[in-house]
Structures are given as structure tokens and as C-alpha cells.
Predict the 3D structure of the following.
Amino acid sequence: METHLFSLVHLVEQLGLEGSERSIEMLVVSIAPIPSNLELWEAPEWDAVQADKIKQWKEPSSPWNDAVEQLDSLLRA
């Protein structure tokens, strides 16, 4: 399995968003910080499909887990 396919860039693209470095920076600026009492997928900025994907990908067995953790860290800073 190629882990680079499960990178932050690819995760953002799978959410239907632009995966460029600049676009990810803009995403972080527009969403962060997510309050600590919310799960990442509970943030109001996600639509229902995005939230469902993030919740599924957060599972420890998911190949997307590391990328979701990276996104979560960026959005909590």
C-alpha cells in the first residue's frame, strides 16, 4: 500500500476541496480553531458528506487516520 495516497493533500481533495498548499492554508485560516469540545467532523464548516467521511476516516483502522489526525492538529492550533 502506498501511504502517500493517504496524505493530507489527498484527504482534502477527497473532501471535494482544492488540495494545493495555499488552499489548505486558507482552509485552516477559515476554520481554525475548532473548539476542543467538538469532534473534528462536528465542526459546522463541513457538509454532511464531508463530516461522514471524516468520521469514518478517523477510525484507527482507516488508512486515512494519520491524515485526519494531521488535519485535526492544524485546525486545533
